[in-house]
Amino acid sequence: QVQVVESGGGLVQPGGSLRLSCAASGNIVSIIFMGWYGQAPGKQRELVAGITNSGRTNYADSVKGRFTISRDNAKNMMYLQMNSLKPEDTAVYYCYCNVNRDGELVGVWGQGTQVTVSS
Asked: What single string gives the DSSP state of each residue in 46-102?
């Protein structure tokens, strides 16, 4: 079994910063892909940023230049540094991991962490 837990969300003013963390634990051989997905009220969940186990990253156009994704493979951790936050960044942010669990690939979601950008 694999568990994924996010932390670091909260309320921040426009222009402010937050750092989200994602911790994966359990029966993990390796994590092929880790990603942050955002879901705003009434909208679909969308990829905000993703990173492979080799360090290749991709970002949604709306966050390029403002958000930075990183990971620590030794600790099975992932981070999202969010700068210059805008009200439209408000969403629940979910961590997703594509995990190699002893030869079996499984996708695991966290429970989400709320990010609210408002004055």
From this structure: EEEEEEETT--EEE-GGGTTTEEEEEETTTTEEEEEE-S--GGG-EEEEEEEEEEET
**CA–centroid distance for 54 within its chain:** 17
Residue 67 has pLDDT above 90, yes or no: yes
Beta bridge partners of 99: 31, 106
pLDDT > 90? residue 102: no
Q: DSSP class of residue 27?
A: S
- The whole-angstrom separation of Cα 44 and Cα 70 is 24
Residue 12 CB neighbours (<10 A) = 18
Given a contact cutoff of 8 angstroms between Cβ atoms, the answer to whether 20 and 9 are in contact is yes
CA distance 102 to 107: 14
Backbone torsion region of residue 65, taken as left when φ is above 0, otherwise alpha when ψ lies between -120 and 50, otherwise beta: left
Span 108-118, average pLDDT: 98
Name beta bridge partners: 19.
81
